[in-house]
Amino acid sequence: MKVLMRGNEAMAEAAIRAGCRCYFCYPITPQGELVEYMARHLPRHGGVFLQAESEVAAINMVYGAAAAGARTMTSSSSPGISLKMEGISYLAGARLPAVIVNVMRAGPGLGNIAPAQGDYFQATKGGGHGDYRLIVLAPSTVQEAAELVMLAFDLSDRYRVPAMILADGMLGQMMEPVELPEPILPQMIPPKPWALTGAKDRAPNVVSSFDLDPYRFREILRALWEIYREIERNEVRWEEYETGDAELVLVAYGTMGRICRTVVRQARREGLRVGLFRPITLWPFPSEPLRELSHRVPVLLTVELSAGQMWEDVRLAVEGRAKTPFYGELGGVVPTPDEILSEVKRYVRG
Amino acid sequence: MSVVEAKVPAGFVPVYTRPKSLSEKRFTYCPGCHHGIITRLVAEAIDELGIQERTVGIAPVGCAVFLYEFFRCDFAQAAHGRACAVATGIKRANPDLIVFTYQGDGDLAAIGAAETIHAANRGENITVIFVNNQIYGMTGGEMAPTTLPGMRTVTTPEGRDVRITGYPLRMSEMLAQLDGPAYITRQAVFDVRHVQMARKAIVKAFKNQIEGKGFSLVEIVAACPTNLHIPPVEASRWVTEQALKYFPLGDLKVRD
């Protein structure tokens, strides 16, 4: 059965269905509905909803709940995510699974509350300090947002790596019919023998990201990067639309990916051979399939609600085999399909 | 590092032994530092209450950063100042656990002031051990929010000038004004009598949690001989003659 839901609400409901029982937050627009939904619904499922005194406190409460073995989540928007970055680095260092939702808005600074994609670098390149990665999932519809929240909990638990949902204000606010995923059963959550549950009949567990010995710490990080390599091998996700005969492929994610889908349809109606490559995992980035595409598609046009951040990963994947122009908007301005189509027409003719 | 236990001659009974809750790991505290006494008192309290198997500690950033190596119970290492938020997450996720933080004055009263105040204000059912030695010890003796007026530190080489850096922050007095906390007390460990009083206070702070009474904090005014650049005995005297002027001992809030 489909229900009409806002993106923020669908992500909250999906988290509950994924077994999230500890949610810590601090209010910020445009993700307010996620907080409100959790406040209303999570306690009814026996979960903990707690409004913290700051984003810094909220992410550290997530650290605590994750350490205790709970499925746990926090959500925020760009300026708040910046504040959470310290805690996210500690989560990554301590190998704690957790889900962080970023409903992006325009920045830098206070910016505004309009949708943007300026936090790509922060999410995918390690916004906090140190050598780490997050699993970063970018939904482009409300349906996909719900599904990726479920997936984020699974991947995070499986690899003991924090996962981020990189959405934006458009996706958070829009309402769409959504088929909600089935709730998981508690026994589907993998056992966590490392969790802090009290050292009864076993040696004490320690959750820490600290080691003063550089040689020992190097080995810990090497093991962590082995996990990252495994994630890169197993978890790359992307969608291709009309790329088979395309002379130009738009590369876009999230809300921009969705708008570019419309652009492809319009272009095709006009006889232009245009396709879409939409990364779903931003880390691990789908470099291989994009490289494949660059062997046969002469133009890969990256479109983002930023000054060009994912664009760098596109160029790294393509390595000059195809033209890689960029089109983007700044400050929370969302381009129309017509505007993008005009840009497309600079490179292809019918 | 292993510890050589003294052989007990026949006919003698050891009365001072290593608490069950402490590991074999030798403390990394400086000679004469009060942390060693306080860490042991916490372990004794855990033993006395028989809660070792359900206790989770939160190690701070600072001189007690290796706390998780000293104790024989589950431990989380927290970011600087965030111990009370981490403790909140653990306790809320699993209320059956006994959760305590152990923090210095830089950790609890400067960078973690917000987390501390709000955990206290929520009446979070946790136990907080607050070691106030008026200085940042581990990083090399910088001014703390609790540094006394006129006190020389590496960042106040001419002595703390209150016109520039303000006054010693009395965290316990501030917290005692709130409705949330169940127990706020200030203790010291510079002599045997005070060690015994501090021990009782720590036991009470854990007992409160077991009984669900809520946020309990034991502040302990301590000495850092290393950064005061004086011998341990003088450092203890310094606590009584200088620090206690700003940080008077006693219960600040007891809710029964």
What distinguishing features does this structure have?
heterodimer; A: 350 residues; alpha/beta; Rossmann fold; 2 domains; 7-stranded mixed β-sheet; 5-stranded mixed β-sheet; 41% helix; 19% strand; B: 256 residues; two-stranded antiparallel ribbon; 9 strands; 37% helix; 17% strand
Q: How would you describe this protein?
A:
The complex is a heterodimer of chains A (350) and B (256). Chain A is an alpha/beta fold and 350 residues long. Chain A is 41% helix and 19% strand. Chain A folds into 2 domains: 2-196 and 222-234, Thiamin diphosphate (ThDP)-binding fold, Pyr/PP domains (Rossmann fold, 3-Layer(aba) Sandwich); 239-344, 3-Layer(aba) Sandwich (Rossmann fold). Chain A is built from 12 helices and 15 strands. In chain A, helix 1 runs parallel beside helix 6 (142-159), helix 3 (55-67) runs parallel beside helix 4 and helix 9 crosses helix 12. The mean pLDDT of chain A is 97. With 256 residues, chain B is of the alpha/beta class. Chain B has 10 helices and 9 strands. The longest helix of chain B is centred in the last third of the chain and has 19 residues, at 192-210. The mean pLDDT of chain B is 96. The chains are: A alpha/beta (350), B alpha/beta (256). The A-B interface holds A 21-22, 24, 48, 50, 52-54, 56-58, 60-70, 72, 86-87, 90, 94, 196-200, 204-210 and B 52-56, 58-59, 65, 68, 71-79, 82, 85-94, 96-97, 114-115, 117-118.
Shape of chain B: globular
Low-confidence runs of chain A (pLDDT<50, min 5 residues)?
none
Mean pLDDT of chain B: 96
Gyration radius from CA atoms of chain A, angstroms? 20 Å
What is the second-level CATH architecture of the largest domain in chain A?
3-Layer(aba) Sandwich
Counted beta strands of chain A: 15
What can be said about the biggest beta sheet of chain A?
7 strands, mixed
> Can you tell me the CATH superfamily of the largest domain in chain A?
Thiamin diphosphate (ThDP)-binding fold, Pyr/PP domains
Largest interface: A-B, 39 and 35 residues
Order of helices and strands of chain A: EHEHEHEHEHEHEHEEHEEHEEHEHEH
